[in-house]
Amino acid sequence: MNWDWSAVGDFLPRFWDGVLTTLEAVALGSVISFAVGLVWAFAYRAPTRLVRWPVGVVTEFIRNTPLLVQLFFFYYVLPEWGIEFSALTTGILAIGVHYSTYTMQVYRAGIEAVPPGQWEAATALSLPTRRTWTAVILPQAIRRVVPALGNYVISMLKDTPMFIGIGVLEMLGQARLQGADTFRYVEPLTVVGVAFIVIAYPASLLVRALERRLVR
Amino acid sequence: MTTGLWQHWVLPGIWITVQLTVYSAALAAAVAFGVGMARTHHLRIVRFLAGFYTEIFRGTSAVVLMFWMFFVLPLLFGWQLVPMWAAVLALGLSYGAYGAEVVRGALNSVATAQREAGVALSFTPWQRMRLIMLPQAVPEMIPPFSNLLIELLKGTALVSLLGIADTSFAAYLVRLATQESAKIYSISLVIYFVLAFVLSRGMRALERKTKANIGRPSEPGLLRNLSLRRSSDDADERLKDLTETGGVA
């Protein structure tokens, strides 16, 4: 069987729909993971073990179990509890929560990487806690964490094809649909595979450039 | 849930997951060492090809690669892979690319004087690699490899999308049979977590052994730190690791 460019052309309308869905999932998933990860990170700094312990156990569990199974869990179990979402929303929530346990580690490392002298200086100047965080710690921590967060956005992009399991028509879903309609799998699947490299490789170059600029 | 479902689907499913993890990890390790060492080769063309491989396989998604191997390879080249081997090939090749970065990083972190000493003693390049570089680099690789191995275990769940009867496929079937989604999906998540825990302890034992071989101290106790992921104590170092391995490890 050989390559047929017209099959590529036929796939393009669906492909662009898929690209949009994929990018939407990555964008919203990133926002959720950045926000929830921050909550985990602060909860893990709580002074009492009663908070630290459960947070540690829950995030460790989420981080070390497959996203695909979590996706099915969200998709089949939430409706049983009376919470109904569309497949795409379910997917975005699942990927956001899964990656929040990774961004949590990034935030923790970012905060711990701020030299202790900075904390001491803030105490010596008797800055209130709020000022210490907003004016001293966070501005230095955020610079350090941006590249690592960027990497997780790229990882998230590469995990969105899992949404095919719950019937979301992102890039891979569209390719499979096209294959089922036209009996040609070669072109759609190859186009999607190349598309991932075309998006992910420049993105990873960008992250490396950011790393050189922002870290030290 | 009846014992029949356990015996016919869940337990064989766990066995398939274990097999997939072992085979893909073996392939990934071979690829990681081969490509990782090639990236430190003195010929530019070898370095370029190895770099090209890592960028391509890190750039694409393991799920897409798996579908591609399953649907496209047979049509394009006329050989049909058994689903299990298409999965092993896809997982091994893509996680091997991540592993290659780990190998390269660890080889580069061995002190230059060590390599120069090998040159001065007129070791061949292969002797230098085998007797000087690798023994010192391997203990450095194990914590990131341990993280990658857990990612690989998580990645094996993807094979259920191709209809291979692994743990998550068994969960799907049991859900259809019993209509109790919460129960079976919680159980399968716990199964994966237990497997990940066992893998992380195994890797820690391996780290102690490789460190002992070159006379370096290792932290005591396999149950001391219950966290599954390994990371450096130094926060800056940790951030660098998170960035360099493409986030996966």
Characterise this structure.
Chain B: This is Ectoine/hydroxyectoine ABC transporter permease subunit EhuC. The complex is a heterodimer of chains A (216) and B (249). Helices cover 81% and strands 0% of the residues of chain A. With 216 residues, chain A is mainly alpha-helical. Chain A has a single domain, classed as MetI-like (MetI-like fold, Orthogonal Bundle). Chain B is mostly helical. Helix content of chain B is 77%, strand content 0%. Chain B has one domain: MetI-like (MetI-like fold, Orthogonal Bundle). The chains are: A mainly alpha (216), B mainly alpha (249). At the A-B interface, helix 2, helix 3, helix 4, helix 6 and helix 7 of A face helix 2, helix 3, helix 6, helix 7 and helix 8 of B.
Which descriptors apply to this entry?
heterodimer, A: 216 residues, mainly alpha, MetI-like fold, 8 helices, B: 249 residues, 77% helix, cell membrane (chain B)
CATH topology description of chain B: MetI-like fold
Question: How much strand content do the residues of chain B show?
Answer: under 5%
Question: How many E-type strands of chain B?
Answer: 0
Shape-level CATH architecture of chain A: Orthogonal Bundle
| H/E series of chain A | HHHHHHHH
Helical/strand content category of chain A: mainly alpha
Low-confidence stretches of chain B: none
Reconstruct the topology from this structure.
The complex is a heterodimer of chains A (about 220) and B (about 250).
Chain A: H1 5-44, H2 49-63, H3 67-80, H4 87-112, H5 116-124, H6 129-159, H7 171-182, H8 186-214
Chain B: H1 3-38, H2 44-59, H3 62-77, H4 83-109, H5 112-120, H6 125-156, H7 167-178, H8 181-213, H9 235-244
Helix pairs in contact in B: 1-4, 1-6, 1-7, 2-4, 3-4, 4-6, 5-6, 6-8, 7-8
